[in-house]
């Protein structure tokens, strides 16, 4: 669609093509801010209360980092990465996720010498050239937690518990889907078994699944292609092929979760879409009757015990992490009726009447701001009535009214928004007086 702008000065209507958002990208407008603030505050609070430090990674990394970590035969690397050659002839990629970058940073900054596990969190945009649909964007934010340097199953449980608490705090009901995919060695045998099982039904497989059969057979387990539900029912289950250590590890995780009363379901078909996983894997989904929504994972994660070594770090550096899709978390909050006031709430609202008071108002407003008082204004509005209505909407406790007369007298009116009572005070003392009144109001 071509949007038309009008060149008012020239008076002639000229068709100007307004640049549009890229497909799959999204503007996050100020009206959404209460949700974003709530999610980021909850993320920061939960992460810091469990001693995770903030990690800010670059958006651009060498392409090989993702190819080696996520795996060449995965959807993300095969089809979804924004990759290009930069002016210095390096193949670079807009990060599709942050676990690979976190692992690289851990190695590059010698974090192996710190107290283990090293716990880090992030809240950053990621990029995947995915097929856009509800809850699926080409730029999306993830809140992620990574704990690198410990194999203790209590960490797996703790990460799930943290996520559970995070959602509880936001008022979203979720459950966890859990599985264990064992070690690479134990998986190798299982995959052979799985391939020979699906080979019998080769003719019934879709083209996509035929490709998976040779390239990435585990993904047959979570294939959404038609007819797969039925075939999958008879497939060998990975839990039966786990090595003893992985089995014990998984049992311990479940025990801890039972103890902490975190709701979960075992899902033998959960394999995740990234190659670096070992042992415990999980996803978080909304508890809802809406089948489509229930399918959209709010987040996912698991152990990646061999990734650090694979990228050239110290042998035997086990790790675990999770990432939540922030847009999906916010969608779930809205779906589950979590509401925020659209208006920013303030303590004080400044009302002005006329030019002289607007001029003086600029300075008064700045003094309140410097004193740390939350204050709003509507310099663009004229009538007092409209300004008081705005004060009301923003739940201001006090309104300040500055008219022409007050400017001349060096005074200002303080209005208690609840009782409507007004008093006139010296304008030089207004900040101190209002601060005291707000303290008394509590
Ligand atoms: P992932 O499952 O690829 O895992 O992504 C985690 C979450 O990011 C998803 O559950 C979803 O909520 C969100 N997400 C993914 N793609 C999109 C998209 N196109 N649009 C909107 N949201 C999306 C990872 O990224 C791993 N790095 C998680 C992890 C951390 N594993 C260990 N540590």
Topology summary:
Elements: E1 5-6, E2 13-14, H1 33-49, E3 53-54, E4 60-62, H2 63-70, H3 75-80, E5 82-85, E6 91-94, H4 99-108, E7 118-127, E8 139-148, H5 153-170, E9 174-180, H6 184-199, H7 207-215, H8 228-233, H9 244-259, E10 264-266, E11 278-286, H10 291-295, E12 299-303, H11 307-310, E13 319-325, H12 326-335, E14 348-352, H13 355-370, E15 375-377, H14 384-393, E16 398-402, H15 404-409, E17 411-416, E18 422-426, H16 430-441
Parallel strand pairs: 3-7, 9-10, 14-15, 14-16
Antiparallel strand pairs: 1-2, 4-6, 5-6, 7-8, 8-13, 9-11, 11-12, 12-13, 16-17, 17-18
The protein binds histidyl-adenosine monophosphate.
Describe this structure in words.
The protein is 38% helix and 21% strand. The protein is elongated and about 90 Å long. Strand 5 (82-85) and strand 6 (91-94) form a beta hairpin. The model is unreliable at 1-8 (pLDDT under 50). Helix 1 packs antiparallel against helix 5 and helix 5 (153-170) packs parallel to helix 9. The chain starts with a strand and ends with a helix. The longest helix has 18 residues, at 153-170. Strands 3-7-8-13-12-11-9-10 form an eight-stranded mixed β-sheet, sandwiched between helices. A five-stranded mixed β-sheet has the order 15-14-16-17-18, sandwiched between helices. Strands 4-6-5 form a three-stranded antiparallel β-sheet. The protein has helices spanning 33-49, 63-70, 75-80, 99-108, 153-170, 184-199, 207-215, 228-233, 244-259, 291-295, 307-310, 326-335, 355-370, 384-393, 404-409, 430-441, and strands spanning 5-6, 13-14, 53-54, 60-62, 82-85, 91-94, 118-127, 139-148, 174-180, 264-266, 278-286, 299-303, 319-325, 348-352, 375-377, 398-402, 411-416, 422-426. It is an alpha+beta fold and 442 residues long. It has two domains: 30-183 and 243-335, BirA Bifunctional Protein, domain 2, CATH 3.30.930.10; 348-441, Rossmann fold, CATH 3.40.50.800. The protein contains 16 helices and 18 strands. Histidyl-adenosine monophosphate (HAM) binds next to strand 8, strand 12, strand 13 and helix 12. It catalyses: tRNA(His) + L-histidine + ATP = L-histidyl-tRNA(His) + AMP + diphosphate + H(+). L-histidine binds at residues 97-99, 128, 142, 146, 272, 276-277.
